[in-house]
Amino acid sequence: MIHSLFLINSSGDIFLEKHWKSVVSRSVCDYFFEAQERATEAENVPPVIPTPHHYLLSVYRHKIFFVAVIQTEVPPLFVIEFLHRVVDTFQDYFGVCSEPVIKDNVVVVYEVLEEMLDNGFPLATESNILKELIKPPTILRTVVNTITGSTITAEIQGVIDACVKLTGMPDLTLSFMNPRLLDDVSFHPCVRFKRWESERILSFIPPDGNFRLLSYHVSAQNLVAIPVYVKHNISFRDSSSLGRFEITVGPKQTMGKTIEGVTVASQMPRGVLNMSLTPSQGTHTFDPVTKMLSWDVGKINPQKLPSLKGTMSLQAGASKPDENPTINLQFKIQQLAISGLKVNRLDMYGEKYKPFKGIKYMTKAGKFQFEPEGRVLQREQSWTLFHFLLVQK
Questions:
Q1: Looking at CB atoms within 10 Å, which of 66, 103, 241, 317 has the fewest?
Q2: Same topology for domains 2-137 and 228-252+269-322, yes or no?
Q3: For 2-137, which CATH class?
Q4: Of 9-13, 178-182, 301-305, minimum mean pLDDT range
């Protein structure tokens, strides 16, 4: 019955989508955006919007549009009642239903939506039953989300790299689930720009071997999801030669993907002579000359978060440092594009043989910094890397 669900804020940005069957392109929401522009008030957007191949049914609550995509005719009140039940469930789980809260609890949100529908039909819609299946966020998680603070600046630099090894003159087309995400795009000369302008499809005859098909930039704050958080306690006492150092790293909004290759580095104040630390996993070093602390964490296990804690020895008679050190992170996440961009189809024309096609996603950290108050200080939040391979069978 219900094929997909899109959550759209009052600014017209899709900040969450869930598909119970095959993925429906975000472009279907263009019909909703047109109706939204015609409406003088958000409440005046028609609850039922027909499109050539779908019906869009929506409710507007807590400054969020909950838009369901239907492929066949169904009683509209049945779908609208389900959408209201989704909103009530979120409010019951998280205490408030808002865009920031949904983003901060995105894993639980997806788990709840997965249980509420079975192959598109309502299954478990009562909160007491859902809470038996999926535990609500704990107080610890709420505290962690509060401690991690606000994002000062964030952006994504994304690229699509290709490796093509095909004979002849193959003509390729590459389409995306959500091309609206792409901003400030730079193309390889082989791309037919007019086709992209009119249809948002990449059409090109590829060169042989490795090349960068395109690069793009995402800077809209509400589209950049922060995949990790750092909980820390760094303190220096007055009239004392000791200080306390403790940090914990955890995953956030990774869609269940593993964060690996994690390293933490921090330039300690000059007054720190030495550090006596114990890591729960990985290895660490502290250079007493350069004052650089390095911690090779490795993979993050959500069930047992890595931590590094201990004491700092300060120079006798030295004044207390004016500020705590900035914490820098490096990491990568395989098979996840933090930008949300997804490939829909990759097709070949002009040749009769059938190629082998493969597409890989990866997110890598750029400059990823946490300052002492817990806010994220980022200039390059991450690189989203796509790599697709085409070889002749």
A1: 317
A2: no
A3: alpha beta
A4: 178-182
